[in-house]
UniProtKB/TrEMBL annotation:
This is UDP-glucose 6-dehydrogenase. Pfam families: UDPG_MGDP_dh, UDPG_MGDP_dh_C, UDPG_MGDP_dh_N. Its EC number is 1.1.1.22. NCBIfam families: NDP-sugDHase (TIGR03026), TeichurnBiosyTuaD (NF047673). The keyword NAD applies. SMART domains: UDPG_MGDP_dh_C.
Amino acid sequence: MKKITVIGTGYVGLVSGTCFAESGNQVICCDNDERKINNLLQGGVPIYEPGLKELIEKNVKKGTLCFTSNIKQAIREAEVIYIAVGTPMSPSGEADLSFVEQVAKTIGENVNSYKVIVTKSTVPVGTGRLIESIIKQHLREDYPFDIVSNPEFLREGAAIKETLNMERAVIGTESDMAYQIISELHQPFTSTILRVSLETAEIIKYAANAFLATKISFINDIANICERVGADVTKVSEGIGLDSRIGNKFLQAGIGFGGSCFPKDTAALVHISQKCGYDFKLIKAVMETNEGQRVKIVEKLKDALGTLNGKTISVLGLAFKPDTNDIRSSPALDIIPYLSVNGATVRAFDPIAVEETKKQLGYQCLYFKDIYETLENADACLILTDWLQVKHLDLNKVKELMRQPLIVDGRNIFDLETMQEFGFTYLSIGRQPINKGTIISKAI
Ligand code: UDX
C-alpha cells in the first residue's frame, strides 16, 4: 500500500487515481479547480467513462480515495506524486507546459520527505529534467526525490478496463529505488514492464500515438485510391491486417482521427523534431491527410445535394468516437459550422455529447437525443460517429422519415449489399458509391 497523490483530475488523473485506489493504495486526487473538486466531493463525475463512476463511489466509500483542492497538503502526505495536469496545444502546435511548471514549483516548495515524482501527462522530451530542476530550485531543505516518466496509453471509452489490464507499463527513470516503487504499483495491472531512461519513456508515448495516427492516415490514403479504382478499402484492411506483421487494428478508414491525443501529439512531435533539427515529413503528411478527410466528406455531401443552401442535414454523432462525451477535435466541430454557414439547417444527434457540444457550437444546429427525430424530413444524413445507435438503425424507418434516402457515411457502418437492397443513395469512404440502390462502378 502506497500513499499516492495525483495532481490534476482530468481524464488521465481521475482514471489513474481511481485505479490505484482500486488496487489497494491510499489515493488523494487533487486539483486547483475548486468547482471540479466540489463536484467530485458531491458524487459528480465530470467525464463519461464506462465503469468510472461506480469505481469512484466504491473507493470513496472504502476510504481509499479522496478529493481535495489543498494541493500543498496532498503533496506533503504523499510518497508518490503523479503529475496529470493538462498539456494543451499552444497556437504554434507546441505542448503548453505552464501547468506542469506551476505544479513542479508547488511540489518543490512542499516536499518534506523522499518522494517519487511521476509524469503521467504527455510531455515533450526533456520535461522530466525540467521538472527536476524546477523542484530543486524551490526545495526548502535538501530532501531527496526521484523523477519518473510513466506515460499513459489508455483509450477513452475503455479507460478503466485498459488501466486495470494494461498491455504494458513503461517506466523511465535512472533511480533503482523509484523504479522498484513504481513497478510494484503496476504489478496488479500487468506483468509486462519496460524500464527505460526518462527521455526514452517520453519519446515512447509520442511514438506510440504517432504510429497509430499514421496507420489511420495510411488506410485513409488507400481508401482515397480505392474510390478512384473501384476497390473496397474494408477488404483491403482485412487483406493486409491478416499479416501478423501489420495487424488488423487501427485500419478502419473513415473521416480521420480526432480526440484529445492524436491531433495534439502529432503536432507536438513535429515541434519536438524541428527543435532537434529533424524534418519529420511523414508525420506532417499524416496530419495533412487527416485534415483532408473532413473536407472530402463534405464535398461528397455537397456534390450529392447540388447545394447545401436550404437543405436539411441530419448529423449523426458529435463525440470524436463512441462511448465518450468528449468532443475535442471532433469532426463535428468543423463540419457543422461549415454546413450552417453555407445555408443548411443542421439537426444533430448524439446520445451523450449534446451538452458539451452546445457549450462550443451554441445554436448553430438543433440538438436531438432521439436518433429518429433527428432524421425527420432530412435531405441527407451524415454519419460522423460510429455509435451503436447508428449501427442499429432501422433502415426502413430511416427511409420513411427522410425527405430523400441519402446517407453519407464517414464511418463505413453499413455494408453495400444492405444499402443496395434498401434503395439508398449511399456514399461511404473508400468504397463504391450507391445511387438509389445501384452500385456506380468506377473500376478502371
Ligand atoms: C488514443 C490512443 O489510442 C491511446 O493509446 C492514447 O493514450 C490516447 O490517444 P483515444 O484518443 O481515446 O486514444 O482514442 P482511439 O480509440 O485511439 O481513437 C482515436 C481516433 O482515431 C478516433 O477519432 C477514432 O475514431 C479514430 N480511429 C481509430 C480511426 O479513424 N480508425 C481506426 O481504425 C481507429
